[in-house]
User: What shape does this take?
Amino acid sequence: MVLKTLVKSVRQYKLQSVLTPVFMVGEVAMECLIPRIMSMLIDEFYGGKIAPVFKFGCILIAMAMVSLVFGVLSGRLAARAATGFARNLRHDLFYKVQSFSFGNIDKFSSAGLVTRLTTDVTNVQNAYMMLIRMAVRFPLMLITALVMSFTISVKMTCIFLCVVPVLGGALALLIWKVYPMFDKVFKQYDALNDSVQENIKGMRVVKTYVREEYEKEKFGKSAEDIRKTFTRAERILALNNPVMWFCIFSSMLLISSLGAMLVVNTFDFTAGEFGELSTGDIASLFTYIGQILSSLMMLAMVLVMIIMASASAKRIAEVLNEPSEITSPENAVTEVKNGDIDFCGVSFKYTESASANALTGIDLHIKSGETIGIIGGTGSGKTSLVQLIPRLYDASLGCVKVGGEDVKNYDLDTLRNSVAMVLQKNLLFSGSIADNLRWGDENATDEELRHAANLACADEFVSSFPDGYNTHIEQGGTNVSGGQKQRLTIARALLKKPKILILDDSTSAVDTRTDALIRKAFRDDIPDTTKIIIAQRTASVMECNRIVVLDNGQIDAVGTHDELLKTNAIYREVYESQNKQGGDAE
Assistant: This one.
């Protein structure tokens, strides 16, 4: 199943993958014929004739050149096929990840996906090159050298056959012991990448709290775990060489002794059964034993590489075979009529195994063009609620409707193009300000960029930059302030001209005056757009048509600012805590 999944990524490199072993067959054939020619040369030269040297010498040079050409072609094609295969694998993995829902991402973790795209793909690439080249060369060399040895002496070749089961058994034992270790080490790579990723993202926090030493220790522990696992695996694999060399030298010793007796014809068996060996035959047998046993050694190394890569291949196949939890249905609806939103008996939890729901029994109707505020304590389910609208997650029970249609019936691109979200964690990509804004609409004109930035109160500070909208933004938007970043991401969302605009605590870093100006711009310029504003400040939602108070994943109350002040204890408490007069602070 794993192999079938990965082979699909070979695609345009099938020809190179097929020709590589073909040329390898030619190289092996030449290398196995050369000892026979050498044997003939030794036997004919034994009488002191010089002519055979020129004759067989030219043949050997020609065969060596043919072998060289086959080897070079095989190596070039193998490199091209393996690197192309790796490129396709990374392409397929990346595009698969793009189709994942948040639930799929949560399952694998971002660090695990990074490891699969880097370390795992590199391991599979190296193994694939070994597979189409070395894994063909050494078994073929082993079989061909054995056949050639049989043509010289059947009984002498039996020495090789006695050695093979010993080597095979030792190799099988090593594989059985080592595979679980390689399977474990890649999970440790995930932990290492997770530590690095977390540390880099939180570098400012680490330095602020002077926690560098703690983070170094945490990283060191992850790195030490990998070192220990690899060390245990390598210690076991190191036993392979002594076993190999013991078998090789034992075989050479037996062949030397037995061959010498056969050459002088003093062995106890009759010459009719064995036949007599010439000096050239003995020389050939030594060459073949070297080819056979070195092939076994190299085959063991190839198998170790394949074993290591098999754990990586399994992890890659897990991603490629993972069905996205959220997909467009057949005959999907391709038009969102309006910004109506209905939550009908919605309950939601992030995983099936979760012990408690993030949302329970949500019933809420939002009219198109309405402005809805959502307020509640940390963990009350505010973000979980709005993520169900563009199907970043699917409801566990009940249904969510947009424009009177169940969101599961929409084409995903259609639905998400009609819903613009400005998330809690604002993210800007490296590039110019204009490039970032055009994520909302790649065909937006400069005038449209300025208009959207104006609505988000961003045009003023952007225009103050020397390069204006061509100002370069560093990765993650680290060269602009939190408030500026929020206003740019709001402008980016507005460029989508959505039917539904969701602001998930996305004005928390701006001052109250700017916050009020943004909300006024929304009322005046996009009155037909449904606006959902999640906020911690009551000042951000008090002018909304209605305010939803969430508590522990349930709707506690729905009403206007004035209504909730009179009837809802949670809202009143939040409002009073934020608007307390300073008289008792003295």
Observations:
- The first strand starts at residue 341 and ends at 348.
- The chain is about 60% helix and 10% strand.
- The radius of gyration is 36 Å.
